[in-house]
From TrEMBL:
GO terms for cellular component: efflux pump complex
PROSITE patterns: PROKAR_LIPOPROTEIN (PS51257)
Protein's name according to its UniProt entry: HlyD family efflux transporter periplasmic adaptor subunit
Gene3D superfamilies per UniProt: 2.40.420.20, 2.40.50.100
Signal peptide residue numbers: 1-22
Keyword annotations from UniProtKB, A to Z: Signal
Length: 315
């Protein structure tokens, strides 16, 4: 018996130490308290006037162009116009001297009243416009029918819009639209004409759109965006764009709603029309008491711990 006593004491001491709680082990409540919480802002669903918008690309164009051509063979006399110069209908734009007149100096013979032909030909503009290109210089020798300049009519300025055939039911002649310029300006416009041809490869039909208000100085072939309303404006619940989350394919959408002051849950939603900063929420129906996360919601799991920084009241 005495030889087994030390071994028994060691077993007793080991049992006592294994059953005693560690002095520095944190309690369950303390471990939960140190978990990080996302700082978020919240708001409520608001009712705004929205419309389902069809946005398409278009190019600026001057469809009514006037080609100024030489009416005979000869030499161009100074002065010669420059690109960008405005011309009036019937205004002399180029002066042409025939090669016979230059050789015989007919333009300087003034003594004989029977000599009615001086060899000076004046080429006039057929319509008012602005010279887009000037192809010849003073002193150049030109052939009969050769192009001298190209002018365009600013009054016929517009935009060429190619509409996919799948969207033709949303576009009609006379329909109002909004023209978004690259610098952020928005011009009111209207669908003016439709061409009775379609692109066989792209399956698009061409329309022309013209501004209905003052038109700034714009070049040809400027890429713009044109908005056409698919539906009439209506009053509907909306949320800020940042409040609505989606998957990578943008086929599933959801928002994060507060269950209490420290927990947010994931709620699937069905979205409708999307504007620049607001998105229509078609379902479910949220009440004025439902608090939706507006920021800090990205990457949160379902029933995530959050900390409300402030409550944002939507106007």
């Amino acid at each position: 018996m005495p030889r087994f006593l030390p071994f028994t004491l060691l077993l007793a001491l080991a049992a006592c130490h294994s059953g005693a709680p560690a002095a520095n082990a944190p309690a369950d409540g303390e471990e939960a308290a140190v978990k990080p919480r996302a700082v978020v802002t919240v708001g409520t669903v608001q009712r705004d006037t929205v419309a389902d918008v069809l946005r398409l690309s278009a190019l600026s164009a001057y469809p009514a162009k006037d080609v100024l051509r030489a009416t005979t063979t000869g030499y161009l006399l100074a002065p010669v116009p420059v690109p960008g110069q405005r011309v009036a209908a019937g205004q002399t734009v180029f002066t042409l001297q025939t090669k016979e007149s230059r050789v015989l100096h007919l333009d300087k013979l003034t003594g004989d009243p029977r000599l009615r032909f001086s060899g000076i030909i004046r080429i006039k503009a057929g319509q008012a416009g602005v010279l887009a290109t000037v192809d010849k210089l003073a002193g150049d020798y030109v052939q009969d029918g050769e192009q001298l300049a190209l002018s365009y009519d600013r009054a016929r300025f517009g935009f060429v819009l190619d509409v996919p055939v799948t969207q033709l039911r949303y576009v009609r002649v006379g329909q109002p639209c909004r023209i978004h310029l690259p610098d952020g300006r928005i011009l009111p416009g209207r669908v003016a004409e439709v061409l009775a041809t379609a692109d066989a490869a792209l399956q698009t039909q061409r329309y022309t759109v013209r501004p209905t208000g003052p038109v700034p100085e714009l070049p040809e072939n400027l890429a713009v965006q044109i908005d056409l309303d698919r539906t009439a404006p209506r009053l509907t619940p909306t949320l800020p764009r940042a409040a609505v989350l989606s998957d990578e394919t943008q086929t599933q959408f959801w928002v994060m709603r507060l269950l209490n002051d420290s927990t947010a849950a994931k709620v699937p939603v069905r979205v409708g029309a999307q504007q620049a900063d607001r998105i229509e929420i078609q379902s479910p129906t949220f009440g004025p008491q439902d608090r939706i996360l507006l920021s800090g919601n990205y990457g949160l799991d379902d029933t995530a711990a959050v900390k409300v920084e402030r409550r944002t009241v939507e106007k």
